[in-house]
């Protein structure tokens, strides 16, 4: 389809300004830069408004628009030159509009659905934000997400949303943890310790658990900074940081939760391997870049046409790597879900492996699915090699 028709403009406008509107996402390229915008409806001083957020040059700014102003913004978006994509989510279905650099416009629509809309939130998004279930102002200030006044910095809004989204996954896997019980969590590759302090604060203050948090990182300066933050927050007796390699680090107790956010390549596999070896009851892992498998992917059959394109090969490698990881955890007795834990606007690396121990290891179906996938692609995933001793009894002789 060439050009933007009046029918498309009308449909997009009606969906965004209709009663069942949920979210708008726009991605537009300016030269070598991608600018992302999103909008949602909020209730501000009793009036329905549209909160628009724009991320450009790593900085995020937000503004609240009236219905009339939102219509004007939509008109500008739909008339914008160059390549862009627009996605509208409503309670009844989605529409996706894409404009190419040559001006061709393509539209796709989802099947009809029935989504629960829920009440409109206020502009501060307190509903559903687990960081609002305890006094997190000092934590946010010390880790740099908030300023001295306690307000979230505009440039850190994405990180704030990401931490909240991760805490929702923490909440999902700890529902059976009773108030007052001891709880040990390990943050593998803790970095600047956003998650370490946030998870400790949520589980100890909002959930009432007796939490011991351990952040692990191999960089001495990072660990030193995290220890100083723990002292400043007055939690150094509950939150400790260790400078060590995950592969050789030893724990004195079985962890209740091992979590890892955006550890690069095989560092994610190492975090998963250590969680298994430590006997962790729960695992939350959001992988980052995944290069190890890419070079091994070779296929002379029907996939040849896909494998010759670098970007498709890379994305396929990412999907397969996470599929192998999920299957290996299943073989070893974990219930596994692969979920999108945060919106694409917050981070493109928004896939999470959520695993809970409790199944019998070596279930035939899990083994057969893993071996079939592995042998189809003629690869041996790094995690299989890392956990070879534990997997041997299940994989040896498998068809």
Can you walk through the features of this model?
The protein starts with 5 loop residues before the first helix and ends with a helix. The strands form 2 sheets. The protein has a 7-stranded antiparallel beta sheet with strand order 4-3-2-1-5-6-7, with helices on one face. Strands 10-9-8-11-12-14-13 form a 7-stranded mixed beta sheet, sandwiched between helices. Helix 1 (6-17) runs antiparallel to helix 2, helix 4 packs across helix 5 (194-206) and helix 9 runs antiparallel to helix 10. By secondary structure, it is of the alpha/beta class. The longest helix is centred in the last third of the chain and has 22 residues, at 310-331. The chain contains 12 helices and 14 strands.
Helix content: 25-40%
The residue ranges in which pLDDT falls below 50 over 5 or more consecutive positions are 123-127
* Class by alpha and beta content: alpha/beta
User: Beta-sheet strand percentage?
Assistant: 25-35%
Characterize the overall form. Answer: globular
| SSE ordering | HEEEEHEEEHHEHEHEEHEHHEEHHH
Give me the side-by-side strand order of the main sheet.
4-3-2-1-5-6-7
Largest sheet: 7 strands, antiparallel
The tally of strands reads 14
Computed over alpha carbons, the radius of gyration is: 23 Å
Q: What's the N-to-C terminus distance?
A: 49 Å
* Helical run tally: 12
Please tell me the overall pLDDT. Answer: 86
Could you give the topology of this structure?
Elements lengths: L5 H12 L3 E10 L2 E12 L2 E10 L2 E7 L1 H13 L4 E7 L2 E7 L5 E5 L27 H7 L13 H17 L8 E7 L5 H13 L3 E8 L2 H14 L5 E5 L13 E5 L4 H13 L3 E5 L17 H4 L2 H22 L2 E7 L10 E7 L6 H14 L4 H5 L1 H8 L4
Parallel strand pairs: 8-9, 8-11, 9-10, 11-12
Antiparallel strand pairs: 1-2, 1-5, 2-3, 3-4, 5-6, 6-7, 12-14, 13-14
């Amino acid at each position: 389809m060439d050009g933007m028709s009046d029918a498309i403009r009308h449909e997009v406008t009606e969906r965004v300004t209709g009663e069942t509107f949920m979210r708008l996402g726009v991605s537009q390229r300016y030269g070598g830069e991608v600018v992302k915008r999103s909008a949602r409806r909020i209730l501000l001083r009793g009036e329905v408004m549209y909160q628009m957020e724009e991320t450009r040059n790593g900085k995020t700014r937000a503004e609240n628009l009236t219905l009339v102003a939102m219509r004007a913004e939509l008109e500008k978006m739909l008339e914008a030159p160059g390549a862009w994509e627009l996605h509208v989510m409503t309670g009844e279905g989605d529409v996706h509009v894409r404009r190419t650099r040559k001006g061709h416009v393509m539209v796709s629509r989802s099947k009809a659905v029935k989504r629960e809309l829920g009440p409109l939130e206020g502009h501060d998004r307190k509903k559903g934000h687990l960081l609002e279930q305890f006094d997190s102002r000092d934590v946010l200030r010390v880790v740099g997400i908030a300023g001295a006044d306690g307000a979230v910095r505009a440039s850190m809004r994405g990180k704030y949303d990401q931490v909240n989204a991760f805490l929702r996954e923490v909440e999902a896997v700890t529902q059976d943890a009773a108030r007052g019980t001891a709880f040990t969590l390990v943050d593998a590759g803790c970095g600047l310790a956003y998650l370490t302090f946030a998870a400790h604060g949520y589980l100890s203050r909002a959930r009432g658990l007796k939490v011991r948090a351990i952040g692990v990182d191999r960089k001495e300066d990072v660990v030193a900074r995290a220890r100083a933050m723990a002292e400043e927050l007055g939690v150094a007796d509950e939150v400790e940081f260790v400078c060590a390699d995950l592969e050789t680090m030893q724990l004195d107790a079985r962890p209740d939760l091992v979590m890892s956010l955006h550890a690069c390549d095989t560092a994610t596999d190492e975090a998963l391997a250590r969680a298994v070896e430590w006997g962790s009851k729960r695992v939350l892992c959001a992988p980052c870049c995944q290069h190890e498998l890419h070079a091994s992917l070779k296929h002379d059959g029907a996939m040849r046409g896909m494998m010759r394109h670098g970007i498709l090969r890379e994305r396929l490698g990412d999907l397969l790597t996470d599929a192998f990881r999920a299957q290996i955890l299943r073989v070893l007795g974990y219930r596994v879900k692969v979920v999108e834990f945060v919106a694409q606007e917050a981070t493109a690396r928004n896939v999470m492996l959520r695993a809970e121990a409790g199944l019998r290891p070596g279930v035939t179906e899990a083994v057969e699915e893993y071996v079939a996938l592995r042998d189809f692609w003629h690869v041996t995933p790094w995690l299989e090699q890392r956990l070879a001793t534990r997997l041997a009894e299940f994989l040896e002789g498998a068809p």
